[in-house]
Write a structure and sequence with these properties.
The protein is α+β, with helices and mostly antiparallel strands. The mean pLDDT is 95. The protein is globular. It has one domain (9-151): Roll (Thiol Ester Dehydrase, Chain A). It has helices spanning 28-47, 131-151; strands at residues 9-14, 50-61, 70-80, 84-94, 101-114. The N and C termini lie far apart (34 Å). 31% of the residues are buried. The longest helix has 21 residues, at 131-151.
Length: 153
């Protein structure tokens, strides 16, 4: 079983007033929702399966986004196991005044493929080819192993 696509997925949305807190910066939960959506889409595109989120790891909020900014969220597959795919998701804020782009958040989203009865099902496997892909694979693998070890305690 071969992957259908290893291309990243990018979503772009504007930060509207209802997306912000009293400081006129983007709610973290709203950003997390966009990142989770991108992860689910890139996994579905990769495997042609339905996925649900099982874990979000090493999520780093680095900078705020302001009302009126554009949020660009990019997800790419970096690791797979038999039924699980991991997407590295990165978010940037873009100011429409000068179109500068600032990384605001990054994290690893682990998703499991499911059938219509919500049972886990096998997926195609990702094969890292470049040094960067191998490095990301090892990072995601270590995160997953830590997650499984913690779960079994």
């Amino acid at each position: 079983m071969e992957p259908y696509s290893t291309e990243p997925v990018t979503l772009i949305e504007e930060v509207f007033p209802q997306d912000t807190n009293s400081y006129n910066t983007l709610f973290g939960g709203r950003l997390l929702s966009l990142m989770d959506k991108a992860a689910g889409i890139v996994c579905a595109k990769f495997a042609h399966r339905e996925f649900v989120t099982i874990s979000i790891d090493t999520l780093e909020f680095k900078a705020p986004a302001k009302q009126g900014d554009l949020i660009e969220v990019t997800a790419k597959i970096v690791f797979t196991s038999n039924r699980t795919a991991c997407a590295k998701v990165t978010a940037w804020a873009m100011s429409k005044s000068d179109w500068t782009k600032t990384e605001i958040c990054r994290g690893y989203f682990f998703m499991i493929a499911i059938d219509s009865m919500m049972r886990p099902i096998p997926i195609p496997q990702f094969s890292p080819e470049s040094d960067e892909e191998r490095s990301e694979w090892e990072t995601a693998k270590a995160i997953r192993e830590h997650m499984l070890t913690s779960k079994n305690k």
